[in-house]
Amino acid sequence: MSPTFVTVIGLEVHVQLATRSKLFCRCSTRFGASPNTQTCPVCIGMPGVLPVMNGEAFHLALRTAVALNCSIPEFTKWDRKQYYYPDLPKGYQISQYDLPMSENGYLEISDPKERFETKRVGVRRAHLEEDAGKSMHDDAQGTAESRIDLNRTGTPLLEIVSEPDMRSALEAKTFLTELKLLLTYLGVSDCNMQEGSLRVDANVNIHVTTGRDVAATPIVEVKNMNSFRAVERALAFEAGRQFEHWRQTGQRLGDVPKQTRGWDDASGVTRPQRHKEESSDYRYFPDPDLVPVKVPPDRVERVRSELGELPAALRQRLVQHYGLSSYDSDVLVNQGRPLATYFQQVADRCGDGKLASNWIQQDVLRRLNAEGVSIHTLALRPEDLAELLRRVKAGDVDTTRGREVLDAMIAQRWSVDEAFSELGIESLDEQQLVALCRELVDANPKIVEDVRSGKIKAAGALIGQARQRSPNANPSRVRQICLALITGDASLP
Amino acid sequence: MGITKDQVRKVALLARLELPDEQLEVMTGQLAEIVTYIDLLSELDTDRVEPMAHAMDLANVFAEDDVEPSLDRDQALANAPRHDGQCYLVPAVLGDS
Amino acid sequence: MTLLELTATEQLRQLEAGELTAAELTRAYLERIARVEPQVQAFTRVNADAARQQAALVDRRRRQGDRVGRLAGLPVAVKDVLCTQGAPTTCASRMLADFRPPYDATVIARLRAADAILIGKTNMDEFAMGGSTENSALHPTRNPWDLTRSPGGSSGGAAACVAAGMAPLSVGSDTGGSIRQPAGLCGVVGLKPTYGRVSRFGLVAFASSLDQVGPMARSVEDAALLLETLAGHDSRDSTSANVPVPAYHRSVREPLNGLRVGIVPEHFAQGLDADVEQAIREALRVYESLGADVREVKLPHARYAVATYYVIAPCEASSNLARYDGVHYGYRWSPPPAPVGGEPVPSPPDADESDLVRLYRRTRAEGFGMEVKRRIMLGTYALSAGYYDAYYLKALKVRRLIRQDFDDVFRDVDLVASPVTAAPAFELGEMVHDPLKMYLIDLYTVSANLAGIPGISMPCGFSSSGLPIGLQLLAPSFGEEILLRGAYRFQQVTDWHRRSPSL
After folding, report:
1. B5-43 architecture in CATH?
2. How far is B55 from chain C (nearest CA, A)?
3. Number of domains chain C contains
4. Residue A289: which residues within 8 A CB-CB, separation 6 or more?
5. C93 carries an active-site annotation
6. Tens digits of per-residue pLDDT, C432-476?
7. pTM of whole model > 0.90?
8. Does B34 contact C401 at a Cβ distance shorter than 8 Å?
9. Could you tell me what percent of chain B has a pLDDT over 70?
10. Domain segments of chain B: what residues?
11. What angle do CA A303, A304, A306 make, to 5 degrees?
12. CA A429 to chain centre
């Protein structure tokens, strides 16, 4: 009987909170500064210094925890996690151990392509801690020394630990994508993996079923995944590797200590990482330099009421209120709150959600992606786009011509009226249209014959001719009128 | 609850202290004596007592999220025993990029 | 009375009245330092030039009628555990021998704003760990009353400095008695404020939940004057109390009626030196003659205080001292150069440890003295896996019981009186090889740190061999006013504090 396996994944995500200053001192957290130019005696851990907690950091952490549906204990404290490393100047990290600020939450994930069922991934805990510095080793130099930059030391981090509820690399990637979306909607983090404001480690093992026996393999911690795609690839690889390993060794959970492996993106494999000096005894104890934080229930409620509309709720509302498909709703929401807001403003004003959605997806998004700009810098106000769409909807201009108008509006910063005027778009009145069509029908006996013998589509050529003669001729009106003339519809004047 | 030389050796590693053998001997004896004295505390029944981690009842002390000037790099590195003008230097820590 | 025998209060009055210049006063103290410091060795560093400059500046501003600070012109010596910007702050340790902090401790900033003359940094037990100032990496300080004896510790230098007339005021730190015990052994006044009363920002940490900075002086009045400048909320210290600072210097002279003083019978039971007991009992009779009601009180958990302290303090210290690793500041071990043409000698005992770990272990082995290492080891052990509940957590619980004892006692009395030490100053070298015996000296003082309450020590007599004996008073949290007033009353009718050693 051929064994099958299920992958079990838990994720540990470190999110840098978007405060201006550090968690325990007032140094800037700006990314990209020259080494050791954003430090002070406090974050360097000089003798005699003391930490004072950044209130905004706690607030952002609290908002996130509430948005993740966590329970918020009324009393929380900070603990020292002690170990020696050159990028940890105090010899301890201020973190949270046994009374974290939040726990037992969840994040719902779903797949528009339905490759897995919608589910809730548990959030075991989310707590606030300080970041360490950076340790750099330049092999090329051939030196036996590492260089330490403490700029990052003391940056506020929210550590989010999930339950091992994910059952595939895809679920893990979806969790991360959804988490990032939530965090950007909340405005609590830049979530930029390239800049290190979002880091992911995974714990993964597999459960192998052979007949009636289910064997769990030892858990492996996977590190060094620098993008969501890398996470997906790494976990898929690791599951397969563990299966092979199990086939060869039969090792089960508990047989060996937890291993740490690093993902090598270039080679597409995980490799064992260097064994630590001794098993980590972090000697946690409450930090005597910090006082506890009390969070009364009414503060939690206030935070909850001020979260703003979050992605999950927004997706639903776009479907229900604007009649969008799930797919379209997803696309818009996943672009971030500014674009979703833009969409709503356009849709509300032009009165047609689907139309607005189509145009925004096709024209606006395409342009944003091509030019690498954000919705904030797009030179097209929602009210102007909405006006254009109203005209399109009313038939004043067809879609194709409408696109030309849009391009011109953006390039020249014209209003709709200005663009119509400059491009010479006028609605032809009915009489003019009918007159035009009569001319074309008379001039194209072959096409008339084709249509009369059932090839309705032949009328399309007349539309092209009409537009050549008069760019403002509405194609669908032309088609209707021509057909009516050809078939002798008496409804025409 | 005594303390053995082997335990002391492990603690010395945890504490990042190198203790030559004679010091290890003396230290073990002294620590054992102190630890025995400290065991006095086990006489007390403290099951229903709340630990007192702080001398006062403060809570919720926060600072505003306002950036203040950092040290100049020269100032920051001025006391560093070994640096290259930009970064602190330490014996290679393997496993870094 | 010579200039140096005047109280700081009186010196200040004369400075303000123009009867005395800061330059004259500073010169007098610098001359005294030149004469007696070689014998006492109270300082790690004397800032003679800077002191003269500061004094000249104060005089000029006074002459011009400019506003000057509260302590303008008064020399103050500061324990070398407080960070002074740009100047060496060594904590009497090899580890920080060359450390120059780029910032001032908050109390130092306050002293500068008060225009005090920062005359020098004083010697101490390394990283404030010890009770004799013999654990200084530089040299021991000697008791001005008997140069073969210890001045106590860890603020031994600060106490000796004032006792020897080398400064009118000094600032020390107290974690388990390190201000009060040396004050008692040197015959001066030393006060440990309520925890949170004075900012700890810039105080090199020993045990964060116990450390406090406090004043030392010849008289209670002077201690009140200095405390007023040191005290106050600091937004850079999360444990700093946001409680207004009373005008201690003025209120110290206010009348005090119906004072109730508690004494603990157990304090007089075990191994108390006969001279000390006599002096204390005599002091209590003085209080009675002043109309105080002296009565017995109980501190049922007092006998557990030293054990509790010697869990909590080393645990916190082991963590606070982890930062000394040779990487970002301070001492750093260097590997010896390999012999020419030969292999570098592999280093026992863990030849396979990484270079980084070796750097840490050797830096700390060479940078720290034995007492510091001992406490780091003890603290690391007590916090390590499996021991947290039995030691640290247990000690925090007993701490609460000790605090509750005081809460109960202060319902019935205003102050608790006791000896500061069981015996007068011991000989240098007498205790150094018996750590536990040294720890037990802290018997009378550690409870105040554990409970977070204020305490003062002042001279109340002399032993038959002419060594000072100190009386300790304890008050409830933020009870500094009653503490100072109660002590001041005693000094109004006694003159122990006016005696000076014959150096």
Report:
1. Orthogonal Bundle (1.10)
2. 5
3. 1
4. A50, A51, C205, C208, C238, C239
5. no
6. 888 888 888 888 999 999 999 999 999 999 999 999 999 999 999
7. yes
8. no
9. 95
10. 5-43
11. 65
12. 48
